[in-house]
């Protein structure tokens, strides 16, 4: 084998190894980007789930003696039309809650994200609550299925809509 053919062989081998290295680096880069996107999606999903569970709990837990603080927790985690509607009904509900010495203790049983992206989510939550009042001092257990539409504002998940669906 001549010197020239050995050099051509080494050059060809170096070129082939360079191409393989570039392909491997491109594959690694794509994998890292995909993993990063998946982690961000998982984080958004987890954040929405946690916020929905907390709002459902706050919405179903109140005491006639602490109504102002209880309703404020719901307002603090709300936005948009839901916040406006809840705010506009607070005084009427407070009158009923205080008059009837009502309490409710919610317990989130199940929750599931129906859909989500980085800035919005829809979550279904099942809550059991024991409700007491002057007519039922022993308490009555109620089961709520709540659909919450959440939006992320300033890196915080807030409830934009809440519907009791069953």
Structure description:
By secondary structure, the protein is α+β, with helices and mostly antiparallel strands. 53% of the residues lie in helices and 34% in strands. It has helices spanning 3-60, 67-76, 80-99, and strands at residues 62-63, 103-116, 120-133, 136-153, 156-164. Strands 1-2-3-4-5 form a five-stranded antiparallel sheet. α2 packs antiparallel against α3. The longest helix is centred in the first third of the chain and has 58 residues, at 3-60. The protein is rod-shaped, with a radius of gyration of 28 Å. It is found in: Membrane. Keywords: Membrane. This is Mce-associated membrane protein.
Query: What's the Cα radius of gyration?
Result: 28 Å
The oligomerization state is single chain
- Principal-axes geometry comes out as rod-shaped
Number of helices: 3
* Largest sheet report: 5 strands, antiparallel
Name the helicity range: 40-55%
The ordered H/E elements are HEHHEEEE
Number of DSSP strand runs: 5
N-end to C-end Cα span: 84 Å
Unreliable stretches: none
The helix-and-strand class reads: alpha+beta
How are the strands ordered across the major sheet?
1-2-3-4-5
Overall residue-averaged pLDDT value: 89
What amount of the residues lies in strands? 25-35%
Keywords for this entry:
single chain; 166 residues; alpha+beta; five-stranded antiparallel β-sheet; 5 strands; 53% helix; rod-shaped
What is the structure about, briefly put?
By secondary structure, this protein is of the alpha+beta class. The protein has helices at residues 3-60, 67-76, 80-99, and strands at 62-63, 103-116, 120-133, 136-153, 156-164.
